[in-house]
Amino acid sequence: MNISIVTVGKLKEKYLINGINEYIKRMGPYAKVDMVEVADEKAPEQLSEAEMLQVKDKEGERILAKIPQDAYVIALAIEGEMWSSEKLAKELDKLATYGRSKVAFIIGGSLGLSTAVMQRADAKLSFSKMTFPHQLMRLVLVEQVYRAFRINRNEPYHK
């Protein structure tokens, strides 16, 4: 399986980079994982509704340019469906079984995802009703994808 995780912004925190790299390394036997960063749109703290849409649209164009045409797209969005770890495992297994070996997870910037990205998504996934920093979501996502592969192989998960 080929997994792309397309994210907005550059990750600078060393502890997050180290954690993400550890899980990507652990996923080596199961999948090829690419972390793809697109530039975030520079914007002032206070934005009008129209300016927010403009920022999301520009970031959305960059995201869409990085999604492989034949990828199954899962957008992380607070309004998405909440899945258990087992449900994520089942969905990834189902995709692999039916020949959808390219999966792209999308993590937006601080303002969220554009309408165009949400329309391109085959599924919308929410990890919680809470809002998380998009940098931290990268680590949480790769851990859950790793856990899903372990579940699918009936392998123990060591914490």
Automatic annotation (TrEMBL):
<comment type="subunit">
    <text>Homodimer.</text>
</comment>
<feature type="binding site">
    <location>
        <position position="108"/>
    </location>
    <ligand>
        <name>S-adenosyl-L-methionine</name>
    </ligand>
</feature>
<dbReference type="Pfam" id="PF02590">
    <property type="entry name" value="SPOUT_MTase"/>
</dbReference>
<feature type="binding site">
    <location>
        <position position="76"/>
    </location>
    <ligand>
        <name>S-adenosyl-L-methionine</name>
    </ligand>
</feature>
<comment type="function">
    <text>Specifically methylates the pseudouridine at position 1915 (m3Psi1915) in 23S rRNA.</text>
</comment>
<dbReference type="InterPro" id="IPR029026">
    <property type="entry name" value="tRNA_m1G_MTases_N"/>
</dbReference>
<protein>
    <recommendedName>
        <fullName>Ribosomal RNA large subunit methyltransferase H</fullName>
        <ecNumber>2.1.1.177</ecNumber>
    </recommendedName>
</protein>
<comment type="similarity">
    <text>Belongs to the RNA methyltransferase RlmH family.</text>
</comment>
<keyword id="KW-0808">Transferase</keyword>
<keyword id="KW-0698">rRNA processing</keyword>
<dbReference type="InterPro" id="IPR029028">
    <property type="entry name" value="Alpha/beta_knot_MTases"/>
</dbReference>
<feature type="binding site">
    <location>
        <begin position="127"/>
        <end position="132"/>
    </location>
    <ligand>
        <name>S-adenosyl-L-methionine</name>
    </ligand>
</feature>
<dbReference type="InterPro" id="IPR003742">
    <property type="entry name" value="RlmH-like"/>
</dbReference>
<dbReference type="GO" id="GO:0070038">
    <property type="term" value="F:rRNA (pseudouridine-N3-)-methyltransferase activity"/>
</dbReference>
<keyword id="KW-0949">S-adenosyl-L-methionine</keyword>
<keyword id="KW-0489">Methyltransferase</keyword>
<keyword id="KW-0963">Cytoplasm</keyword>
<dbReference type="GO" id="GO:0005737">
    <property type="term" value="C:cytoplasm"/>
</dbReference>
